[in-house]
Design a protein that fits this description.
Length: 149
């Protein structure tokens, strides 16, 4: 009897994991749709998120992403051409260039996040009752526990 219970729990956990990933993927796509135009590759989006934490060299971005600096340069160049990222000499080592987000990029990120937040807030309010919203909050608490170390 014990083996069956463990097997059933394992199957349920596997099913939940699959369903969470599927819902996350769909939610991410819907949020992207409502966040304004986003023609960024996943690598470019990752670079912008890293640069939100502060300026960085192409080499340090490459290390953080687990790639060669030459590959990172190919990712950063279109961001510079789009005026989302700019480079300036590193004050502590003039041979290095520190990449940082431009004011244009910061505004674009803020507007996109606000649009996604507005869409999600409106959708939750429109589609879920207060009781369902409380259930969603409880589910989020459980999901948060899953990702905590």
């Amino acid at each position: 009897m014990r083996i069956r219970k463990s097997s059933t729990q394992s199957e349920l956990a596997r099913t939940l994991a699959t369903e969470i990933r599927a819902v996350y993927r769909k939610l991410k796509l819907r949020l992207r749709e409502h966040g304004g135009g986003n023609d960024l590759t996943p690598s470019q989006a990752s670079v912008l998120l890293r640069l939100e934490n502060g300026s960085a060299t192409v080499s340090s971005l490459a290390r953080a992403e687990g790639m060669r600096p030459q590959s990172m340069s190919a990712i950063v160049l279109p961001l510079q051409e789009s005026e989302l990222v700019s480079g300036a000499p590193d004050p502590s080592d003039g041979r290095q260039t520190l990449m940082s987000l431009t004011p244009k990029c910061l505004k674009w990120l803020e507007e996109g996040r606000a649009a996604r937040q507005d869409w999600l807030t409106a959708t939750i309010s429109r589609k879920l009752s207060v009781r369902e919203q409380a259930k969603l909050q409880a589910a989020l608490e459980l999901l948060t526990r899953l990702i905590e170390d």
